[in-house]
Amino acid sequence: MSDEGKDYSSMNDIHKALDDVSRGPEPVIFIDCTASDKVPEEYRTILDKNIHIATPNKKGMSGKLSLYKAVTENSTHAVVFHEATVGAGLPVISTLKDLINTGDKVTKIEGIFSGTLSYIFNVWGGGNAKFSDVVKEAKEKGYTEPDPRDDLNGMDVARKLTILARICGLQVEGPPSSDIFPIESLIPKALESAQSGDAFVAGLPNHDAEFDEKRANAKREGKVVRFVGSIDVATNTIKVGLQSFAHPVFHLIVDTQ
Fold it and tell me: What gap in Å lies between CA 93 and CA 133, rounded to an integer?
């Protein structure tokens, strides 16, 4: 965090700065653009200073359930704005909250929640390109993280699903892991320990046949493969992984009775 060229190397320094600005007459917003799981631990203290928070950081809202409750359930004039944690700023969270607050009952949410994986499967799923070539191209274009495994492990989608599930009232513990709900990783076992993102991409062609088979199986049924996240509110079930669809779309099913 910096202000007029000053660097703040610790949360203590940041809290001192926030104490100073919170004494002024104007509203104050703390913007957390990190991917840290440490900064969200300070959210409750920041809110107690009557300072609003705006963040795309999914770690806090999808991490420990106790932290999520501490941030969202305590009475305070300050609030956390985290629309950008799901849908890259599209009004997914605000729309979901509006539906719930106006009495609608959400029964199921299902969709493609990763822009990176959406690109990869749109290119790979509908043609004959090798999976490794598509991943390499996506990396070169800057669509993936520097290490594509950070996209392919499914954890980003799992965190987004955790956030939406909690808004729907599900008591989902975090951080997400396969011990809590199924998260299908697209990383071949042999490449999980690759030394770098480049090493992972270099080794991926050895596993193209596995992905070719998944695509072929879907094509025989007239479908395409997509990486999907789903929440079934009624059964308290969350899943993240590959599914085959005739017409893959994002949809939100609402029971308005």
Answer: 34
One domain, residues 11 and 72: yes
Single out the residue in 85, 120, 135 at which a domain terminates: 85
Residue-number span of the structural domain to which 31 is assigned: 2-85
pLDDT tens string 99-152: 999 999 999 999 899 999 999 999 998 789 999 999 999 999 999 999 999 999
Q: What is the pLDDT of residues 7-50, one digit of tens each?
A: 555 778 787 888 887 787 888 999 999 888 889 999 999 999 88
d(CA 121, CA 227): 8
Q: Are 192 and 134 contained in the same domain?
A: yes
Q: What is the pLDDT of residues 152-173, one digit of tens each?
A: 999 999 999 999 999 999 999 8
Choosing from 59, 136, 139, 160, which is the catalytic residue? Answer: 160
Domain count of the chain? Answer: 2
Tokens for 65?
Answer: 């359930």
Is 92 part of any domain?
no
CA 50/CA 16 separation, integer angstroms:
14
> If you average pLDDT over residues 88-104, what whole number do you get?
91
Active site residue 160: yes
* Residues 123 and 74 placed together within one structural domain of the fold: no
Q: Does 34 map to a domain?
A: yes
Residue 128 in domain = yes
